[in-house]
Amino acid sequence: METGITPLPPVADVALPWDRTLDDPVATLADARRRFGDTFVVDGPRHPTLFLFSPAGVRSFYALPEAEASKGVADWMMLTRKLPDELFSGRRTFPAELFGREDVAAYLAQLRAAISVAFDELGDAGEVDLFAFTRRLGHRMGLACWAGEVPSRAARFDALVAAFDALDGSDAFVHPEEMARVAAAGKREERAALAVVEDLLVESIRARDAAPPQDDLFARIVGRWDGEPEPDRSVGIARDVVLVHLGSMSNLFAATGWMLAQLATHPDVLARVRAGEDGLLERCALESTRLGQRSIMLRAVLAPTTVRDEHAAYSVPVGAQIATLLPLTNTTAMPGLAGYDPDRWVRRRLRDDALLPARELVTTFGHGAHTCPAQPFSLAAMCLSAESLFTAYDVSARFTDVQPLPVQIGGVARAAAPCVVEYRRR
User: Fold this and answer.
1) Cα-based angle 71, 254, 98 (whole degrees, multiple of 5)
2) What is the mean pLDDT of residues 139-148?
3) In whole numbers, what is the pLDDT of the chain averaged over residues?
4) Backbone angles phi, psi at 128, to 5 degrees
5) Burial class (CB in 10 A: 0-12, 13-18, 19+), 226
6) Prior bond to 7 cis, omega within 30?
7) Strand pairing partners for 51?
């Protein structure tokens, strides 16, 4: 078999879920790891992928220069299985640029406003699926932050949510089994949803043009298109907003859902949260994110590169991919990681991280140059959402635990089944 990887590790007789439908791609790769060891290759019609799971292999994976083995390009290649190519053309605003300290303070103010509207929707008592609640909350907050949409219960918000959910680029890794159908249809549904979002956001742009100047993120996005003729200006602004919003929605709402679900099923921890134990909410956020990780970390090889494990240095050619898979290391890197225990964290580090064979084996928001720039905001948003919900309401879980959606490979897991709670205002 010619992969160009030398020396060639064992080649696993499995496929990735974009090339063959898999009921549970994480379980498939876990089985391949058991059979072939911590370093193996999965060949495919587009790229051979070198998987690394050992301490030295994962450490070497994170140390690869972005110019040689790019996470950004690999992410783009994954997302374009779902998103129309034109969404990425000519963008002037990107999610990674938007998480300075002042931005985060503004976002949290919008989150508080979004929570207030969400609680109005909930009313005094009822039942709600926690992941549906956090997804809707995430849409409301995000559209307020970078689309100028004041949090509300208006029909316009529901129209935006429906269109964004149809367009959602995270389906590329949440539902990889659907990507062949998306490709066969020429992304027709996605382009229709993008057109709906653009039409709605153009209304916002026109309203902003007619209003007195404002100093917010939406104004910054609008300003980056000053001087462009119409309709290029309005389409460019709208697509910048779409890309930022989809990027923000890819994981935050799911991580918050995991946090709420874990607290709802661990009343002892919830009691400590309500008692105001210092730092506990952030520890809960980190622990839930660790357990909820379903991420495949991919690097697209752009220049010949070398990656190492304990046994060899592997030359990897242009066109290949290098990968690791967080759910297979986050819970097995040392004994005791399989269960939920927020007290394993001290600030933002594992209490016993010195016992890890490599600290890169456990990941919540990435390592080194690939640490998520939104980590401070994400943790603050998760904590604020949880604190607000459990302060305002008593909840009773109608489920026993939260399990990841089996078909998903990438991002923070969506729940395999509804995580419904009964709530009553305190």
Assistant:
1) 55
2) 92
3) 94
4) -150, 145
5) exposed
6) yes
7) 40, 323
| Residue 122, pLDDT above cutoff 90 | yes
DSSP character string of 276-308: T-TTHHHHHHHHHHHHHB--EEEEEE-S-EEEE
State percent of the chain over pLDDT 90: 86
> DSSP label at 175?
S
Rounded Cα–Cα distance for residues 18 and 45 (Å): 10
Write the DSSP assignment of 44-75 as a string of letters.
-SS--EEEE-SHHHHHHHHHS-TTTEEHHHHH
Token representation of residue 301: 């090889």
Q: For residue 81, give both structure tokens.
A: 């299985």
| pTM of the shown model | 0.95
Is the distance from CB of 50 to CB of 39 less than 8 angstroms?
yes
Q: Which domains does the chain have, with CATH numbers?
A: 25-425 (1.10.630.10)
Which residue matches tokens 């100047």? 213
The arithmetic mean of pLDDT across residues 220-225, rounded, is 94
Tokens read off for 82: 């779902």
Whether 87 contacts 241, CB under 8 Å: no
Sign of CA dihedral 14, 17, 20, 25: positive
**Burial category of 261 from C-beta neighbours within 10 Å (exposed 0-12, middle 13-18, buried 19 and up):** buried
What is the token pair recorded at 338? 């399989």
Helix (H) or strand (E) holding 119: helix 101-122
Q: Is the dihedral of CA 77, 79, 82, 86 positive or negative?
A: negative
| C-alpha of 78 from chain center | 13
Query: Which neighbouring-strand residues pair with 421?
Result: 128, 397
